[in-house]
Write a structure and sequence with these properties.
It is a single chain. The protein folds into 2 domains: 187 residues, Penicillin-binding protein 2a (Domain 2) (Alpha-Beta Complex); 351 residues, DD-peptidase/beta-lactamase superfamily (Beta-lactamase, 3-Layer(aba) Sandwich). The protein is built from 22 helices and 20 strands. The strands form 6 sheets. Strands 2, 3, 4, 5, 10 and 16 form a 6-stranded mixed beta sheet that branches. Helix 13 packs across helix 15. The radius of gyration is 33 Å and the shape is elongated.
């Protein structure tokens, strides 16, 4: 009996202990820890995300480029849904019953407890009508948002656009939730972390009819949204507008850089598009229309198109030849209309002969640069052509070719400067010869460069041997600094002394006397010394591309530019006069010879080349 009584006492003690544990736990849950009280109240609370206004975007002169306008999303919380009048609901929001069924189903699949977007970007008029009767539709509420608005119909590729996040972004970045917006391209993407600001949240008490009765706990748990930082771009919007105007009815690009800073003054990709097309509820349709357009207006040719540099690349070989001591300013070569090596022949245009280094750039002699290139690769200071080629390539790469420049422009391509291993595979031996790759002498063959890289090369020449990484943003307002890489000088492997003969040749190409054979006289500007070089890039798919690079003024360069006009033929015909207009517009804010402007504006190369293509077919 004593043993049985002892066990009964033990059981009583255990029961009392368990009871005490439950009582203490319930006391903590209900009295001490208020977070559980908040969780239990979720069925009468509404959490409304406060989306911050994105930062504004300005041009370098303070002109407002991008700002915000009010928009409203209709949100739905599946757990709070109740029966409602779908006819009235559809009438107010101008939607169908099928739309309601489909989107409520999607919302439930996303989450029964979390609100999601039911209808995006309704107008302020629709919002006002819905707000008055929203109590009739439990589970629905309005989420204020902002949409981008543009002052100008220009610079779409520079600014970029904003779009809704996808599942991949949500999974990789905890900041974003379904229905959030993010920068997709251009400045909007590159500087998303600064422009987006920080989201906040307001917690409201709602009644059984889903009507807000007040702030929960006097806003104690609310978090205030922080507006995004304003961004000042490097673009001169007036120069940008002018460049886009000149490129109407043409395909190609213009990139203009301030050599002393690397700041991009204008970046034109043509054909382009109005940035307003990718805003609001029509964005998806407009994007699809732009995406299937045969002229590819969404394709940013300035940073993503790869072209052979053509004769503009002769400048590189002139610089490398001097550095490698196989060329000097007084080195002359004769030309009889072509370069000959055994049975090999590479044609050249008719001109005076022989030529020295500056004259070879002025007149753009193919024969001269075939001789220069072979002297670089057949240099006996190297064990083999292969080793000499590697040294040549290293010099070229030091100008920013063959790799992305690491600018703040998303999707910038590397271009192509082939490695020695590339040619080992092509010729199935390491003993290939300089004549095998002679086309590189005149900027053809396997070479691929972007217009941005060519503008950067031009800025490097203007600086006599160094460049700043090109960038599209000048300043971020607030306690933010641009990446240090944009303030660092990047020196090439070519000594500054070797640039002067090349610059002299570029000056002669533009400013040489009539009849001298200068290839870029169409780029002359009165009282401004422009230094430039024409190029004609071979195009296997049609008319050759017209290329021109230049900087000005000669002794205090303020602008370096590259112009590519697809299917434009000779560089001096289209690209050079267009560059001349851009330079004069930027430096003088006026055009001294309007007939050049009329010549460019009145030309429709897209239609012309389309008709020519149809005729050939």
């Amino acid at each position: 009996m004593d043993s049985f009584a002892g066990r009964k006492n033990i059981i009583r003690v255990l029961i009392v202990l368990i009871g005490l544990i439950y009582i203490i736990r319930l006391f903590i849950l209900q009295v001490v820890d208020s977070s559980y009280k908040l969780t239990a109240s979720n069925n009468v609370l509404r959490y409304e995300t406060q989306y911050p206004a994105r930062g504004l975007i300005f041009d370098r002169n303070g002109n407002l480029l991008v700002f915000n306008q009010a928009a409203y999303d209709i949100m739905v919380n599946p757990m709070q849904l109740d029966a409602f009048d779908t006819t009235e609901f559809c009438s107010i929001l101008e939607i169908t019953k099928e739309y309601i069924d489909e989107n409520i189903k999607s919302a439930k699949e996303y989450s029964l407890y979390k609100p999601s977007i039911f209808l995006k970007q309704v107008s302020s008029v629709t919002y006002a009508r819905f707000q008055e009767v929203m109590f009739k539709f439990p589970g629905f509420f309005v989420q204020p948002r902002t949409l981008r608005k543009y002052t100008y119909e220009n610079a779409a590729h520079v600014i970029g656009y904003v779009g809704e996040v996808n599942d991949k972004i949500i999974e990789s970045n905890t900041y974003y939730n379904q229905g959030d917006y993010i920068g997709i391209s251009g400045i909007e993407q590159s500087y998303e972390d600064y422009l987006r600001g920080k989201k906040g949240v307001n917690i409201y008490l709602v009644d059984v009819h889903n009507r807000i009765k007040g702030s929960y706990n006097n806003g104690k748990f609310d978090v205030k949204a922080e507006v995004g930082a304003n961004v000042i771009s490097t673009i001169d919007i007036n120069l940008q507008k002018y460049g886009e105007k000149l490129m109407q009815n043409k395909s190609g690009s213009i990139v203009a850089i301030e050599p002393s800073t690397g700041e991009i003054l204008a970046l034109v990709s043509a054909p382009g598009y109005n940035p307003e097309l990718l805003v609001g509820r029509a964005r998806a349709k407009n994007y699809n229309d732009l995406n299937i357009d045969s002229l590819k207006p969404l394709f940013n040719r300035a940073v993503m198109a790869q072209y052979p540099p053509g004769s503009t690349f002769k400048i590189m070989n002139a610089l490398v030849g001097q550095k490698e001591k196989v060329l000097n300013p007084y080195t002359t070569y004769s030309c009889s209309g072509a370069y000959f090596a055994g049975r090999f022949r590479l044609g050249c245009h008719s001109h005076s002969s022989p030529l020295n280094l500056p004259q070879s750039i002025q007149i753009s002699c193919n024969t001269y640069y075939c001789n220069v290139f072979r002297s670089i690769l057949d240099n006996r200071n190297y064990p083999s052509v292969r080793d000499a080629y590697e040294s040549w390539r290293n010099h070229v790469v030091s100008f920013g070719f063959g790799k992305a420049l690491n600018s703040d422009l998303i999707n910038e391509l590397n271009g192509l400067i082939p490695t020695k291993e590339y040619y080992d595979k092509v010729y199935r031996t390491e003993n290939w010869k300089s004549l095998n790759i002679i086309s590189l002498a005149i900027g053809q063959g396997e070479l691929g460069t972007t217009p941005l890289q060519m503008a950067n090369m031009t800025a490097t020449i203007a600086n006599r041997g160094y460049y700043y990484i090109p960038h599209i943003v000048k300043e971020i307002e607030g306690d933010f600094n641009l990446d240090a890489r944009f303030y660092k000088r990047n020196y090439t492997s070519i000594d500054s002394v070797y640039f002067e003969p090349v610059i002299k040749g570029m000056e002669l190409a533009v400013n040489g006397e009539a009849g001298s054979g200068s290839t870029a006289r169409t780029a002359q500007i009165q009282n401004i010394i422009v230094c430039g070089k024409t190029g004609t890039a071979q195009n296997p798919h049609g008319e050759d591309h017209s290329i021109f690079i230049a900087f000005a003024p000669k002794d205090n360069p303020q602008i370096a530019i590259s112009v590519y006009i697809e299917n434009g033929g000779f560089g001096g015909t289209w690209a050079a006069p267009l560059a001349r207009l851009m330079i004069e517009k930027y430096l003088n804010d006026s055009i001294s010879q309007p007939y050049w402007e009329e010549y460019i504006l009145n030309s429709d190369l897209i239609t012309k080349n389309a008709k020519k293509s149809q005729h050939l077919e």
